[in-house]
Amino acid sequence: MQSNIIKILFFGDIVGRVGRNAVINYLSDLSERNQMPDFVIANVENASHGFGLTSKNYNELTESGINCMTSGNHIWDKKDVFSIIDNSDILLRPYNYEKSVNGEGLKYFDVKDSKIAVLNFLGRVFMQPLDSPFEIMKEKIKEIKAVTPNIIIDFHAEATAEKICFAKYCSTIGVSAVLGTHTHVQTADEQILGNMAYITDVGFCGSVDSVIGMDYEVSLKRILTHLPYRYEVASGTLAQINAVEISLDLLTGISTDIKRLNFNIDTDKNKEIESEKSIE
User: Fold this and answer.
1) In the annotation, is 184 catalytic?
2) Which of 5, 28, 184, 235 is the most interior residue, by most CB within 10 Å?
């Protein structure tokens, strides 16, 4: 591989203890086999009992080898985050919140003598009425490009059409990757749009026996009765890992490849149940 081409591993929403254990074990295994990617990003807005992020879980995920943490609308669900996010060099909140909100939605990272810009946005369709990510990128792109051509965006959004439209727009202004999160269901549309890597939703990391990471019985009661039963994170040791691996040219900011990862791992035995990691 050319020295200017790097591998970026991006994990979909980590949900609860099962998801944390799966990602931590998987990264440990990669490290032991000397196969760690050059840069690791994970969406952590559901990492602590399915809602938000605690200091303890932030620390253990940082120690696992994650270089950057993105988030979404649930990042504020644990009060710990307010003491973390202002002092963290790696945790992002969605950029399109009001500027007075704690934290930052854009951070720069040093990778192999180059810089990577990572941004986090919330979509607006079926979501909170925040500032337009389209307008923000239109205003910020020249400023970011003056620093680096390598621009990765976690677009945390509900509507498929909004994700695709935003991705197509970003592909015309020189973004390296737009990776969708939030729905916890991995889509099969990974592709290179122009010179940009894209997938509508990366999926999630958490319990296989669940409803997008949550306990089935509680989810069923909520749907059948319309009563606000408290969500519980699904338990068990069998976890799924949803992620994508991107090949990025640091000199140009062009993504040359994107591979979708979808496999199960036994978090007790720390071994893969399905050996095929890359779905072509």
Assistant:
1) no
2) 184
